[in-house]
Amino acid sequence: MSTTALRDLESILKKDQIKTDEESLKYWGRDWTTYFDIKASAIVFPHSTADVVALVQWARQNKIALIPSGGRTGLSGAAVATNGEVVVSFDQMNKIKEFNSVDQTVVIEPGVVTEALQQFAHSKQLFYPVDFAARGSSQMGGNIATNAGGIKVVRYGLTRDWVVGLTVVTGTGDVLELNNGLVKNATGYDLRHLFIGSEGTLGFITEATIKLAANPPPMNVLVMGVTGLDAVMKIFAEFKTKTPLVAFEMFSDKALRKVLDSTGLSAPLATECPFYVLAEVETRNEQDQEHALGVFEKCLEEGWVLDGVISQSEVQAKTFWRYREDISESLAKYSPYKNDIAVAISKVPPFMEDLDQVLSKAYPNWEVVWFGHIGDGNLHINILRPEGMTKEEFVKECRKVDVMVFDAVKKYKGSISAEHGVGLTKKTFLNYTRSEAEIQLMRGIKKVFDPDNIINPGKVI
C-alpha cells in the first residue's frame, strides 16, 4: 500500500481502527487453513455501515482489494489475505441491537459471536438453533457468508433459514436493505439469498435480522456402536421416521480414539466398533423417552447396533456430544488435510465405499479419519500428515488425490463443499459441482455487485 493510500485511509478511520504491525497482519490475515502465506497490507476495524461505505470508496479509488473477516474459523481460505489486501475485520461491530418480541427477531451486527447470540436468545426464552463446535469463536457475519450448517440441520436447517433481513454494502459502495424482516415478500429477486453463502465476494454484511425459535423440549442423546455403513443408514431411517430427530452424526473408530487420547475421556461403550452414531432426539415427555428407547431396541434386535447407551442427564448428554465435537480439535496437531463433501442422503453408503477404496489405494500407509453429519449427507475426510513429511510435500500429494475424490463426488452428483465453502482451496474444482453455464452466471453476478473486483477477489470463482 502506498504512503498516500495509507494517509487517505487514516483520514477515514481513527488510528485505533487500523493495524499494520507484522503480528496483527499475520493474526487477522488468516483463517483456520494453514497452507497459505499471509501477505496482508493492513487490518481495519469498521464501527458502522458508514465506515464500510467509506472503506469501499477508498478501495475503489486506490484500486486496493478488501478481504471480509469474521471469526476466521473457515477452512477454505476464503478469509485469507495473500496478495497485499486490506483485511476488514468485524471484531468491533459486535452489538446485539434490537429485539422484537412479537416477530421473535433480533437485529445484530456481523461480529456477534454465535454463542453470544445463542445466549441472548436463551435470555429471552427463545432459541437460535444453528450450532457447531466453533460456536464460541465463529461470528454471525461469517456464518451468513458461508451459509453455515452444523449439527442440527436435520431438524432446523441451515443459517439461510434463519436470516430474514440483511443490510449489505456492495463493491460499488451502495447500501442495500434486503427483505427488512418480512415473512412474505413476493417482489422479484430476493437478493438477500445471493449474499448468504457468497463467501464475502459480493459485498459486506453490516447488519442482519435473525429469526429465533421457540425453546426446544428436553433431549436424549444416544451413542451407538454400528456394524457398518449400510447399518448407519438403516438406523438413520428408523430414527428419522419414528422419532423427532434433531441430529444424526457418524464418526469412525479412528476418530473416537483420537478424541479419547486427546481429552482423557472414557470410551462410551464397552464394545469396540468400526463406526459410531450419535443421535439426538426430542423427548417432551415420558412417552417420547419410551418411544426413543423402543427404536433403539429395534436397531439392536436387527443387528444394526452392536452396543449403545442413552444419556440419563444433561451433563452426560454434553459428554456424549464431546465424542463428536472434539474430533477436529483432537486432530489439529496432525495438520490434517480436510475435505468437506456431500451427496444425497440415500447415496451415502455406496459413495463412502467408493471413496474408501480411492483413499485406501492412494494412501495405503496414511491415516484417514472420517466423521460427518450423516443426517444431511455431509462427510468430513481428514488425512493426517505423516510424521517427517513437510507441509508443502503433504499438500502437494493430497491435491493429487483431490481429483479422484471429486471424481467420486461428481459421479454421485454431490458437492465438493458441503459447508466450508470454496474459497481458495476448492476454486479450481468448482466445475465438479457447478456447470460452466452456472459458473459464467456467477461471474456475471460478481461483476454487477463488484465491478472493480475489489471485494475478496480470487475467491470462489
TrEMBL record:
InterPro entries associated with the record: FAD-bd_oxidored_4_C, FAD-bd_PCMH, FAD-bd_PCMH-like_sf, FAD-bd_PCMH_sub1, FAD-bd_PCMH_sub2, FAD-linked_Oxase-like_C, FAD-oxidored/transferase_4, Oxid_FAD_bind_N
A biological-process GO annotation: respiratory electron transport chain
One term of GO molecular function: oxidoreductase activity
Annotated Pfam families: FAD-oxidase_C, FAD_binding_4
Superkingdom of source: Bacteria
FAD-binding PCMH-type domain ranges (all copies): 36-215
PROSITE patterns: FAD_PCMH
Cofactor(s) this protein cannot do without: FAD
Family the entry assigns: Belongs to the FAD-binding oxidoreductase/transferase type 4 family.
Name recorded for this polypeptide: Oxidoreductase
Organism lineage: Bacteria, Pseudomonadati, Bdellovibrionota, Bdellovibrionia, Bdellovibrionales
